[in-house]
Amino acid sequence: MRNSLIFGLAGAVFCFAASGSAFAADLNKPVYKAPPPPPPAPVYSWTGWYVGGNIGYGWGDANTDVAGNGNFVSNTAIGNKEVIQLPNPIGFSETNTARLKGVIGGGQFGYNYQFSPTGVVGFETDFQGSGERGSGQLTDPFGLILCSFATASGVCTQTETAGSLAALTSYQAKIDWFGTVRGRLGILIGDQLLVYGTGGLAYGEVSVSGNSSISGVIESNPAASNEAAFSSSKTNVGYSVGGGIEGRLAFLPSNWTWKLEYLYLDLGSLDTTTQPLVLGPALNPNSTTITTHTHFTDNIVRVGLNYQFH
């Protein structure tokens, strides 16, 4: 009995010691933890100021109305006794369009505010140099009816067709530079791409230059005309509307964006005046005036690069 008790206690001590050694060994083992999940990708914010540059192409119209009016002064016989001078009014009008086209380039500056996960509002101003040019030519024929006999009091009692004349007007129209101040409102596709509409003020310098002359036949003889030049330029104010897309560049830091944009511009009108003189048989110098009224519209497509300050 005594020996059995001794052997039982010894076995219990041995088991306790073995389990204690195993527990100590477990405490000494390194503990391996699962790696933490990667941090969420940063959300790109479109809010902030930006500055950039652009280059593109423009094509537009210089719609020109040409009008002529005035008087030729003719020498008219009264019987066989004396000669008096009578005015002979003339008038003509015509419309022509010069197609403007050329390279444009410049810079822009603006501010975006992201007011929701998918909404961006802002404004932009830009200034562009322009190589847009176009030319046109108008030929306006008109007849010349002279008074061949008049009373002593100057009342014409007999007329004749004295010849046919034509006014030739050649002109060049240009957009020298322009700029815009516009609002922008867009929708985000993800946080990478902005699709927007835009509109606001447009301004720019437009110019027209050229010359006018009158040629033809008067009483079977060629008319002699001088060539009168005209030139005018003006800074006009109009409007612009359009739209575009803007997105991030994968190979550049996140505050660089590219843009592709279309704008329609109306840059107002410009007037010129010239006074070519005509001399010919039975005619004295005249007071003919030729005017042009040119209205400028433009379409531009441009690509650009913006740096956003965050």
What does this structure look like?
This protein is 9% helix and 73% strand. It contains 1 helix and 12 strands, in the order αββββββββββββ. Strands 1-2-3-4-5-8-9-12 form an 8-stranded antiparallel barrel. A two-stranded antiparallel sheet has the order 7-10. β8 and β9 form a beta hairpin. 30% of the residues are buried.
Summary tags:
single chain, eight-stranded antiparallel beta barrel, 310 residues, Porin, two-stranded antiparallel sheet, 12 strands, mainly beta, 73% strand
Please compute the radius of gyration using only Cα atoms: 42 Å
Order of helices and strands: HEEEEEEEEEEEE
Shape field: rod-shaped
The CATH architecture classification of the largest domain is: Beta Barrel
Structural class: mainly beta
The CATH class of the largest domain, by name, is Mainly Beta
Proportion in β-strands: over 45%
What can be said about this structure in brief?
This protein is mainly beta and 310 residues long. It has one helix at 2-28; strands at residues 48-78, 82-114, 119-150, 156-189, 193-218, 221-222, 224-225, 228-248, 256-274, 278-279, 283-284, 289-309.
